[in-house]
Amino acid sequence: MAVLSDAIRQAAAIPILSGQVCLITSSSGRRWVVPKGCFEPGKTAADIALQEAWEEAGLIGVLRGEPIGHYHYEKLGRRYHVTVFVLDVTEVADDWPEMKLRQRRWLSGERAIARIQEPDLRDLILEALAARQPA
Question: Which of 57, 51, 53 has the alpha carbon at shortest distance from 95?
């Protein structure tokens, strides 16, 4: 999937632990999403995915190498291009930076994709759950 030149670039993590996916509420609290954030100077897409998983969901883990894919969405008239990684979660914090701003839920794949609005992200979640976890 090509990156649109006018798109805002973001990176996201699909957090997985024991076959479940972690979703968080958006900053408005109206939608369920995966942790994601805008690129920052001097940081890679992988750095941003790990950073957002911590800040937005209180999760620490290991990314499964290369991105699993990409998706686009629009918000307030702007187009976003999101690079998506799978995060194998190793730690779940009780306290994290945005815990008062967001809810965090662990869901089965079926329940997670039912809450996600972006069709391409739903496909990536299914793909992430079907992929073998590294040894």
Answer: 57
